[in-house]
Every structure is written in C-alpha cells, then in structure tokens.
C-alpha cells in the first residue's frame, strides 16, 4: 500500500460524495482536511431547522444548557434534562429561564416571526416575581395533595378530579422534586445566594433512533443564541459553494441562527407556519437563485394572497396539507401545474376539483391521497360521481369536450405516490377528435 498522501483535488472529490453527517464528523476530528471540506460541494437530503440547532438526515445537532451539582444527587428532572443534552433555552446563574435575549437577531439570522418578549428573566409568561413564586408554591401544594391521595388509596377520586380538569395531571414524586428545585432556584435569586451548581453549554449529536449520542461540553461564557449560532457556523459557515439540500423545513422556529453569507440551493421547501409570505421573504437572502423554480413547496396553511407569491405560484408542484374544504376553496388562486392535496377527498370535493379543471391549462395534474379512508371508499366515491360505466381498470374518464378529457388514475401505493396507502391522480389532457 502506498504511503503517498491523497492529493487536495482527490480529497475534494471524495468529500463531495460522502454522506453529510460523516463529513461533519470528519471535519470535527481532522483539522487537516477542513479547508478542502469547506471547498467541496455539500449535499444534504433532509434539513430541518430548530430553535436549538438543526437536524440533518435524521441526525440532530442540538445546543443545551447542562446543570452540574457540586455535591449530592440532582433532582430527577435535571438528570433527565442532562441526559437529553440540557434545557434548550437561556438560563441565569440560578438556573431560571431567561428570555431577555431570546428574540435578539444578528447578521445572517432568518427572522421568521417577529415576536416581542418582555425584558425579564421570568419563566412564567407575564409573571411578576410575586406571581411566579405563587405559581411555584401552588404547584408544590398540588403535587403534595395528589401524592397524599395516592397514599390514602383515593385513586378513583383522583382520576375523576383530573378528568374534570379540577387538578393538573402532574403529581409524581419527580414533579414535586422539580417544583421544589424551581423554588430553591427562585429563593437563591431573590436572596442573591450562589446556588450549589454550575451550568455548561453542551452540544449533543444524536443519530437516528437515538442509536448514538455524543456530547461536547463548553464553559457557559456566551448566550444560548450565540452558542446556537456557533453550531450552525461550524456546520455551514465558510463554504465556497451553495449547499445543495433536497428537502428543507423548520420546526417551531421563530429565528434561525445562521452565519452571514450562507447560501442554500434547495429542491423542496416545507413551511409549517401560517405566515407563508413573511416566511418566504425571510428566507430569500439565504436561498441561491438556482433554487428556483422549486421542485415542490409543501404548505400546512395558505392565505389566498400568499398563493400569488412567485415562489409559490412558480413551483413545479404545490402540496397542500390542510382541511380539504379550505384547500378546494383556494383552487381558483393556484397557478401550479401540479397540485398535491393531502386530504380526505369527498364526493363534493371531487366535484369542485373537476369543475375547476375546466379553467385550468392543459397538462395540469392533481394528486389526492389519504390514509384515513379505505381503498373501497375511494372506488365507491368515484362510482357515485361518474357511474359504474366510467370505471375501467382503475381509471375513470370524464369527457369535457370533443377535444379535452379528465382522466383519473387510482391505485394502492401507486408509483406517483409510493408511500401512500392509496391515491388519485387527475390529468387534464387533450384528445384527438373522433
């Protein structure tokens, strides 16, 4: 075997075809390849942004705050949080949640929702110190009451009270221990007493199905948002070429912390928030021009005015995942040639969709699917609409004019929607006159 080192160009070629998480780990472990790694094109299949970090191809990179006690055992809730990589928010030196820096945005960040957070370290929304103390004490009292009822054999009464929402579901020893820990932290802050624990920043890496978890600990000498930004800069920052991502989404983020100058070339984009237009505006600075038109954009909500956004209207496919009636009502606003409706198509929904086809361009395609109804429901629905004679070999044909027809294809796990129990494909197509 030759001892000759691999050339720079060959290394870039090898890196280009490595799985994204393997490249990130190699970058972390081998400083000598870092220049080449940042120069080689990076491809990612699945990228989901989170407030605490990112998920890349089912591997989660998360920033947390870890609490380490000087002596003795930690409360079970703290032990559990530490095992999961720490709490995912800023804390003060006493361990109380601190929101004062939560909505601060810096250069490179993608601000999805402009929210206002009180300049306060309170962990209860809108709480004064007195109200917060009362909330914690009340929780301790309820936990003690529930545990006492359990010891006295009053489980049936306890279940009825919980069912009527007269008492909260909390009431385990762990809940009581957690509430007492919060009270202790609150009293330390009130009395300015140094608590018997310290906090550290932890970056955890968790692979698919929690098969492997790795922790890296750091001194808590920066804010939580700064730590998240350091994480994304380590993964995405300094790259010479746009990062090619097949599927991009974001889970419950208000601000995505990114390094300046980053560009993504994306194929498919999923927006779960109701604010489609503002989310697209926020993302535009980090999307490379080669992303457009998108191959697919998936929306869980859509206002009529947002349907006219060029990114939405020019996407090759538009996938809508909300109530079918609301979806059908939007059809006149949609210009996409391919529309995928993830809903339960009723007879009336299908009637409206087919009526709408008369106003569409030829070669328009719709795909409807649902796992909530049986395949027999689908065939009976089509039969109700068009009659048994319209059905032939899992297709239905409806003649619109001498030159145009609507054709429906319906199958179990079809090639055009292979992960669905069944689906309908509707094509609006030209036919030769008889």
Characteristic terms for this protein:
24% strand; single chain; 434 residues; alpha/beta; globular; 14-stranded mixed sheet
Q: What would you note in describing this structure?
A:
It holds the Pfam family DUF3557. InterPro entries: DUF3557 (IPR021942). Among the domains are: 71 residues; 175 residues, no CATH class. 32% of the residues lie in helices and 24% in strands. The chain contains 13 helices and 16 strands. Strands 6-5-3-2-1-7-9-10-11-12-13-16-15-14 form a 14-stranded mixed β-sheet, with helices on both faces. Strand 10, helix 10 and strand 11 form a beta-alpha-beta unit. The longest helix is centred in the N-terminal third of the chain and has 23 residues. It is globular. About 2% of the residues have low confidence.
User: Which regions are unreliable across 5 or more consecutive residues at pLDDT < 50?
Assistant: 116-124
Number of distinct beta strands? 16
Instruction: Sketch the topology as an H/E string, one letter per element.
Output: HHHEEEHEHHHEEHEEEHEHEHEHEHEEE
Sheet/helix structural class: alpha/beta
Our count of helices gives: 13
Helix percentage range: 25-40%
What is the radius of gyration? 28 Å
Strand order of the largest sheet: 6-5-3-2-1-7-9-10-11-12-13-16-15-14
Strand content: 15-25%
On the 0-100 scale, what is the average pLDDT? Answer: 85
The major beta sheet can be summarized as: 14 strands, mixed
Cα distance spanning the termini: 72 Å
What is the gist of this entry?
InterPro entries: DUF3557. The chain is an alpha/beta fold.
List the helices and strands and how they pair.
Blueprint: H1 8-16, H2 20-29, H3 34-39, E1 43-50, E2 53-56, E3 59-69, H4 76-83, E4 110-111, H5 129-151, H6 155-163, H7 173-191, E5 197-206, E6 213-219, H8 224-236, E7 243-251, E8 255-256, E9 264-271, H9 276-283, E10 296-299, H10 310-313, E11 317-320, H11 324-330, E12 338-342, H12 347-357, E13 365-369, H13 375-386, E14 395-399, E15 404-412, E16 422-430
Helix pairs in contact: 5-7
């Amino acid at each position: 075997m030759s001892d000759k080192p691999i050339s720079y160009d060959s290394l870039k070629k090898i890196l280009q075809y490595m799985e994204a998480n393997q490249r990130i780990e190699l970058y972390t472990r081998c400083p000598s390849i870092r220049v080449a790694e940042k120069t080689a094109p990076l491809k990612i299949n699945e990228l989901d942004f989170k407030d605490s970090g990112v998920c890349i191809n089912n591997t989660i990179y998360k920033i947390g705050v870890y609490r380490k006690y000087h002596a003795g055992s930690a409360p079970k809730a703290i032990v559990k949080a530490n095992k999961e990589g720490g709490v995912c928010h800023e804390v003060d030196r006493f361990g109380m949640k601190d929101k004062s820096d939560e909505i601060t945005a810096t250069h490179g960040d993608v601000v999805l929702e402009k929210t206002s957070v009180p300049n306060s370290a309170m962990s209860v929304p809108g709480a004064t110190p007195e109200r917060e103390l009362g909330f914690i004490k009340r929780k301790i009292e309820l936990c003690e009451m529930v545990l006492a009822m359990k010891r006295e054999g009053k489980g049936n009464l306890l279940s009825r009270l919980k069912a009527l929402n007269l008492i909260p579901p909390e009431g385990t020893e762990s809940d009581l221990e957690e509430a007492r820990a919060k009270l202790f932290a609150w009293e330390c802050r009130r009395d300015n007493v140094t608590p018997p624990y310290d906090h550290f920043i932890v970056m955890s890496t968790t692979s698919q199905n929690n098969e492997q978890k790795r922790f890296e600990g750091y001194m808590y000498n920066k804010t939580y948002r700064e730590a998240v930004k350091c994480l994304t800069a380590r993964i995405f920052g300094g790259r010479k070429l746009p990062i090619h991502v097949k599927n991009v989404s974001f889970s419950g983020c208000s601000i995505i912390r990114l390094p300046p100058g980053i560009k993504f070339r994306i194929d498919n984009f999923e927006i779960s928030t109701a604010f489609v237009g503002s989310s697209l505006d926020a993302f535009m600075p980090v999307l490379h021009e080669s992303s457009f038109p998108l191959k697919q954009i998936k929306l869980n909500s859509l206002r009529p005015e947002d349907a006219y956004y060029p990114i939405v209207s020019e996407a090759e496919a538009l996938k809508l995942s909300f109530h079918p009636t609301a979806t059908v009502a939007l059809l006149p606003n949609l210009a996409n040639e391919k529309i995928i409706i993830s809903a339960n198509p009723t007879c009336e929904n299908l009637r409206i969709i087919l009526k709408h086809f008369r106003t569409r361009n030829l070669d328009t395609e719709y795909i409807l699917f649902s796992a909530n109804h049986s395949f027999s429901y689908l065939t009976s629905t089509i039969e109700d609409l068009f009659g048994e004679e319209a059905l032939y070999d899992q297709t239905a044909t409806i003649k619109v004019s001498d030159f145009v027809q609507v054709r429906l294809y319906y199958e179990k796990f079809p090639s055009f929607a292979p992960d669905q129990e069944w689906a309908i494909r509707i094509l609006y197509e030209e036919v030769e006159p008889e």
